[in-house]
Amino acid sequence: MAEATTMLKQRFDSLAGWVDYLSHQQIPLLEHTQQALRELAGRLEEVSVRDIAALIRHDPLLSLKVLRYLQEHRQNAQITDVTTLERTLLMIGISGFLRALSSSNTVEQQLARIEPALYGCHAACYRAYSASKYAQAICSRRHDIDPAEVMTAALLHDTAEILIWYEAPQLAAQVMLMQQKTPGLRSRDAQKQIFGITVLELQLALAHAWHFPKLITHLLDEGYRDEPRVRTVLVANALARHLVNGWRDPALPDDYAAVAELTGLDLDGAYALVRDTAVALAHEWSWFQVTPPAALLASSN
Predict the structure, then answer these.
(1) Are 175 and 190 in contact (CB under 8 A)?
(2) Neighbours of 264 (CB within 10 A)
(3) Of 160, 161, 167, 219, which is the most exposed, with the fewest CB atoms less than 10 Å away?
(4) What is the pLDDT of residue 49?
(5) DSSP character at residue 106
(6) Which of 211, 209, 114, 121 lies closest to 159, judged by CA?
(7) Is the pLDDT of residue 77 over 60?
(8) Alpha-carbon distance 47 to 117, whole Å?
(9) Mean pLDDT (whole number) for 173-202
(10) How far is 200 from 237, CA to CA, in rounded Å?
């Protein structure tokens, strides 16, 4: 079993400091993911690309690890970017994937003795996965040309925050505590005070430093929020974040309005789309060990 690594207790003075540090750290996996990988490796002849892709898509950290691995091993002859996890997996191959990427430290090993941080990291992973499913639902209604690209961007949107929970749990907990003590405080304002940067700034800087496909980096950039696909990524992540607070979160009506605008549904239809997606997500709560928003539906009526 891998040993827990040293955790950061102080922030860096600059965005470049954060990027440099995280670029030299191993990306962990969720323990549930690692167990699932071992099970798949035991029946390799029966495993399909679809099986592996579904597993990768459940864990935003593994998704990040796969994408970064491909970019680091990109061949000079490869002209076009690979913009979805499925295509990335096809480039690596199932056996190559299991050989290169299935072994890793786990979030649970690092944070086992810091229960609030472990929950915070699990919750951030679940939000990321949920965002990808909300993005999928919106894309389905919009008949997006390639929903998998938007889903991948939505899944990766907050991976910088997940990495901070893993590498600097005390700092991440300070942000969470600040928001609990100050209702209405925007996440980015709390992050700026504690981290010295926002998570989105760090996410975009990592995307550039790690040479993400240009399309994925573009979809992560809220500077292009007027574009429907970028807005879908932003709205999906907003939904995932706001629903953690329950179905009466004051920001949700704006989220439903944005979903309605993107899909052409009325507000009731937009709410139904989000609700039905949340209910489907609830069946997968055990992967992340957090309470799903759908469990709070009854109390909202």
Answers:
(1) yes
(2) 10
(3) 167
(4) 81
(5) B
(6) 121
(7) no
(8) 34
(9) 91
(10) 12
- What is the per-residue DSSP string for 260-294? HHHH---HHHHHHHHHHHHHHHHTTGGGTTS--GG
Question: For residues 154 and 135, is the Cβ–Cβ distance under 8 A?
Answer: yes
Point out the least confidently predicted range of 27-31, 89-93, 118-122, 253-257.
Answer: 89-93
Contact 43, 74 (CB under 8 A): no
Question: Which residue type, as a one-letter code, is found at position 53?
Answer: A
For the chain, how far is it from start to end, CA to CA, in angstroms? 46
Q: Which of 40 and 271 is assigned the larger pLDDT?
A: 271
Residue 56: is its pLDDT beyond 90?
Answer: no
Model pLDDT, residue 79: 46
Alpha helices, DSSP H, located in 168-266: 169-181, 187-195, 199-209, 214-220, 228-243, 252-263
Check if the beta carbon of residue 241 is closer than 8 Å to that of residue 187: yes
Contact 214, 81 (CB under 8 A): yes
Residues in a beta bridge with 283: none
Tokens of 210: 């790690």
Q: Which H or E run includes 135?
A: helix 115-142
Would you say 256 and 270 are in contact if contact means Cβ atoms under 8 Å apart? Answer: yes
